[in-house]
Amino acid sequence: MDDARTPGNPLDRGDLDDQRFLASAGISRLEVVDSTGSTNADLLRAVTVEPQAWPDLSVLTAEYQTAARGRLDRHWEAPPLSSVSVSVVLRPVNAEGRPLPTQSYSWLSLIAALALRETLLETAGLPAELKWPNDVLVRGRKIAGILAQLGPMVDGTVPPVILGTGLNVTLREGELPVPTATSVVLEGARTADRTLLLKSYLSRFAVLYRSFCNADGDPAAGMAGGPSLHKRVEAVMVTLGKQVRAQLPGDHEIIGHASRLDEYGSLLVMDRDSREHVVTAGDVVHLRPWTSPDDPGQGGYA
What we know:
7-stranded mixed β-sheet, 5-stranded antiparallel β-sheet
């Protein structure tokens, strides 16, 4: 493992403040704080109180989060200096400054997941995959989660999106939030340098995000010199092809075959009666297949 910075060391603020890095990624502002409750909550407040001070691609990252929040209002706390905890302000407009349609916003968390997967694969050497709707897995265990929240509309402007990402970096087995989680160190990555991982993630996210914006939020358009966002996400979405249980808001659930993503990034699930359901939100549990419940290749995990 690369020991240029020992795991658990603080972020290199000078490296993060490098103007060449910020300019190449198009990052307008980057702030590092020692400790906070939640970077997402902080940015939601900031864009309400000082919207002009937090333009598109403003970044807030924390060494330690005491009240991190995930989907379905779940909370957790990781040891200081053990994770990459970062939130980004997004004000999606195309090259002419025209706002993207808000129905395209559902793809923003998938762009983040894709960028983080590329970082884990190419920077850390880990075989990462995506689990719908916004988790990143390594060898079937959750290594990162992403949460997008809509900010307030101020002065009639399009509401921003606050996109938060939490990556487990140096957590050991006893520090994991749940037994089905993992970390960069536990997976034997080639580096656990939090500064390097953060810079790689932000750079990759910015490229994909800008390409998506310039395509007017069309997930079917080719992006960044390659396949469309829709195709890129489906290609690495381990949920597809699985038998799943989708736990929906309101205590409902659907069990069926996860077949594909629609144009809004929603998951399409075919039940036993060949009825197709559109799942826009909720938890998805990967199940063993009905036809061969003992197939070791389809291990059940959340």
